[in-house]
């Protein structure tokens, strides 16, 4: 066990080091390729101009005539299918090439949004994210490849965008968006795309857009549903006009807890790119004053007309005092009672006497101690993976199923003497504490939870235990 | 999530008669967290004629007490248009309960 653990970590370190080196080399290749492309594309144009005009009739050059609308020969060819669209054409493409768009979040929504925005020729594309690419991102965050696991998402996304379109400017903001940097970052762009995954970020980005007067393309996806709205566009409502009160923390589900079908954020992210392109190119009617609801189960898309700007809105209303300073001072985590970062909360409900570590639990199993292990995760989690001989009683049905625990304990006592212990486990060690508190209130004084749940079992006891 | 299904309301008719003695049927659509809390995507509800959107919500909360936690953070749409609590619902109206999603 000991030596194989040591080997594994050495191999992991070596893989990490090689990946770092690989990413550095790939970045260098990309830079050189871009450099080469620029050299090559400039050279023949110069030659052509010289040979056709021969220094006597420069005004008749075809290249010069085309440049009147600002599109280069390369752009005309690259975006030709856009230019062929009568309702899009040269003017819209030229608007797009002059525009700048910031995408906050390079995850499930940001991945397709960024790919399409880069491909369509947004002149300057900014990416904000502070996470690294993980294996459990790959099923939906299609901008990243396995090569980039462990690398910053911003780096991975920027490389992918640049490899699709080397002619646009990509700006990497490898940091978490906070009230301290949001004004400075967002003010550099015409349009903001909210592709984040949590409630405090959504309020913060919307408020910042109001203060800076930027249109906001806001998308969200969870489970099998998606939502899309354009806020703060030409006098339209902001996020707070619709939702002046934040949802209770218990209602703020995350993909990492509730799950999401990969293609659902993919669809919403594509629609976000579409809305951002419409605004940037000044074509069509953006989805302002409306909310698009996507329901994957029934394959239905509904568009619901939402309220206009609220005169009472605390941020964009008539008598608002909200400004840049108030924005900087606002505590969005406190307002929504949930964290801005994606790291899951670590609850501390129980005293140390009511808890044991996963290593201690392992020792007790090995020593043959009579005990019952209750796993309080939902049934569909339990089906993914579980510890041997554990009893699955989801937290939501704990009180009703207490007799099952009593009889399991009795069974253990008959088999191996008196005083069987009761342990509770969950995924990360939060629900197990809630369960132990509940069990102790019902008379199971010796109930203990396993600190850090199955995650700590996988980290500290069994590195081969599958995690999700 | 996958067990979500539609269901007919079966509350007794005595509670659903209006001042003039008549009642109406509306269709309630649940989205996002409201789906999780009720286990339904839609529900047919009988209310006294003259009822407001708020009356309908009250009735839903009494049927699904969990809905109370998100009650103050939803968009309410009547026939796919924004509505307020005081709007009067009519027979065959469609009332959508839309809590915000924040995932991505």
Automatic annotation (TrEMBL), chain A:
One of its GO terms (biological process) is tRNA wobble position uridine thiolation. Residues 1-42 form a coiled coil. Zn(2+) binds at residues 238, 241, 313, 316. The active site is at 255 (glycyl thioester intermediate), 426 (cysteine persulfide intermediate). GO terms for molecular function: ATP binding; metal ion binding; molybdopterin-synthase adenylyltransferase activity; molybdopterin-synthase sulfurtransferase activity; thiosulfate-cyanide sulfurtransferase activity; URM1 activating enzyme activity. SUPFAM superfamilies: Activating enzymes of the ubiquitin-like proteins (SSF69572). It comes from the Eukaryota. Binds 1 zinc ion per subunit. GO terms for cellular component: cytosol. ATP binds at residues 108, 129, 136-140, 153, 197-198. PANTHER family: ADENYLYLTRANSFERASE AND SULFURTRANSFERASE MOCS3, UBIQUITIN-ACTIVATING ENZYME E1. In the N-terminal section; belongs to the HesA/MoeB/ThiF family. UBA4 subfamily. Plays a central role in 2-thiolation of mcm(5)S(2)U at tRNA wobble positions of cytosolic tRNA(Lys), tRNA(Glu) and tRNA(Gln). Also essential during biosynthesis of the molybdenum cofactor. Acts by mediating the C-terminal thiocarboxylation of sulfur carriers URM1 and MOCS2A. Its N-terminus first activates URM1 and MOCS2A as acyl-adenylates (-COAMP), then the persulfide sulfur on the catalytic cysteine is transferred to URM1 and MOCS2A to form thiocarboxylation (-COSH) of their C-terminus. This is Adenylyltransferase and sulfurtransferase MOCS3.
TrEMBL record, chain B:
Belongs to the MoaD family. MOCS2A subfamily. Acts as a sulfur carrier required for molybdopterin biosynthesis. Component of the molybdopterin synthase complex that catalyzes the conversion of precursor Z into molybdopterin by mediating the incorporation of 2 sulfur atoms into precursor Z to generate a dithiolene group. In the complex, serves as sulfur donor by being thiocarboxylated (-COSH) at its C-terminus by MOCS3. After interaction with MOCS2B, the sulfur is then transferred to precursor Z to form molybdopterin. HAMAP family: MOCS2A. GO terms for biological process: Mo-molybdopterin cofactor biosynthetic process. Heterotetramer; composed of 2 small (MOCS2A) and 2 large (MOCS2B) subunits. The keyword Nucleotide-binding applies. The modification 1-thioglycine is found at residue 104. It comes from the Eukaryota. This is Molybdopterin synthase sulfur carrier subunit. It comes from Hibiscus syriacus (Rose of Sharon). One of its GO terms (cellular component) is molybdopterin adenylyltransferase complex. CDD domains: Ubl_MoaD. Gene3D superfamilies: 3.10.20.30. GO terms for molecular function: molybdopterin synthase activity; nucleotide binding. Keywords: Cytoplasm, Molybdenum cofactor biosynthesis, Nucleotide-binding, Phosphoprotein. Coiled coil: none annotated. Pathway: Cofactor biosynthesis; molybdopterin biosynthesis. Pfam families: ThiS. C-terminal thiocarboxylation occurs in 2 steps, it is first acyl-adenylated (-COAMP) via the hesA/moeB/thiF part of MOCS3, then thiocarboxylated (-COSH) via the rhodanese domain of MOCS3.
């Amino acid at each position: 066990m000991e030596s194989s653990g040591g080997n594994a970590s050495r191999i992991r370190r070596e893989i990490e080091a090689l990946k770092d080196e690989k990413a550095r080399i790939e970045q260098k290749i990309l830079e050189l390729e871009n450099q080469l492309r620029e050299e090559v594309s400039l050279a023949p144009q110069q030659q052509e101009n010289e040979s056709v005009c021969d220094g006597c009739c420069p005004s008749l050059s075809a290249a010069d005539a085309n440049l009147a609308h600002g599109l280069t020969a390369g752009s005309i060819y690259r975006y030709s299918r856009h230019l062929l669209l009568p309702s899009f054409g040269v003017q819209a493409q030229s608007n797009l090439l002059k525009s700048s768009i910031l995408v906050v979040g390079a995850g499930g929504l940001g991945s397709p949004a960024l790919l399409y925005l880069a491909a369509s020729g947004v002149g300057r594309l900014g990416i904000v994210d502070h996470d690294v690419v993980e294996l459990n991102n790959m099923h939906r965050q299609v901008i990243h490849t396995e090569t980039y696991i462990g690398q910053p998402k911003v780096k991975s996304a920027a490389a992918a965008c640049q490899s699709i379109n080397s002619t646009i400017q990509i700006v990497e903001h490898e940091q978490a968006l906070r009230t301290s940097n949001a004004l400075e970052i967002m003010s550099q762009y015409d349009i903001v795309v909210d592709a984040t995954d949590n409630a405090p970020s959504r309020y913060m980005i919307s408020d910042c857009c109001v203060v800076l007067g930027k249109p906001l393309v806001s998308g969200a996806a969870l489970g099998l549903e998606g939502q899309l709205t354009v806020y703060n566009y030409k006098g339209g409502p902001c996020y707070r006009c619709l939702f002046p009160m934040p949802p209770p923390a218990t209602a703020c589900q995350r993909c990492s807890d509730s799950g999401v079908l990969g293609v659902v954020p993919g669809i919403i992210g594509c629609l976000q790119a579409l809305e951002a392109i419409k605004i940037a190119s000044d074509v069509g009617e953006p989805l302002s004053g409306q909310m698009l609801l996507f329901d994957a189960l029934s394959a239905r898309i509904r568009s619901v007309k939402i309220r206009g700007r609220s005169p009472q809105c605390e941020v964009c209303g008539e008598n608002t005092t909200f400004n840049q300073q108030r924005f900087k001072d606002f505590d969005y985590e406190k307002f929504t009672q949930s964290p801005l970062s994606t790291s899951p909360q670590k609850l501390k409900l129980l005293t140390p006497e009511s808890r044991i570590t996963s290593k201690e639990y392992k020792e007790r199993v090995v020593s043959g101690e009579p005990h019952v292990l209750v796993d309080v995760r939902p049934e569909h989690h339990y089906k993914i993976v579980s510890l041997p001989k554990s009893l699955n009683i989801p937290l939501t049905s704990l009180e009703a199923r207490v007799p099952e625990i009593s009889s399991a304990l009795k069974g253990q006592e008959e088999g191996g003497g008196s005083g069987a212990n009761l342990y509770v486990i969950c995924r990360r060690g939060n629900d197990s504490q809630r369960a132990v508190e509940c069990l102790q209130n019902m008379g199971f004084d010796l109930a203990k939870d396993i600190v850090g749940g199955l995650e700590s079992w996988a980290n500290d006891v069994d590195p081969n235990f599958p995690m999700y | 999530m996958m067990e979500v299904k539609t269901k007919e309301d079966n509350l007794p008719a005595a509670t659903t008669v209006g001042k003039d003695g008549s009642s109406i049927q509306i269709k309630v659509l649940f989205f996002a967290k409201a789906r999780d809390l009720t286990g339904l995507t839609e529900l047919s509800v009988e209310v006294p004629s003259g009822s407001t959107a708020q009356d309908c919500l009250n009735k839903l909360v009494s049927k699904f007490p969990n809905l109370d936690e998100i009650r103050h953070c939803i968009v309410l749409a009547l026939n796919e248009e924004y509505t307020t609590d005081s709007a009067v619902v009519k027979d065959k109206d469609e009332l959508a309960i839309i809590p915000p999603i924040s995932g991505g």
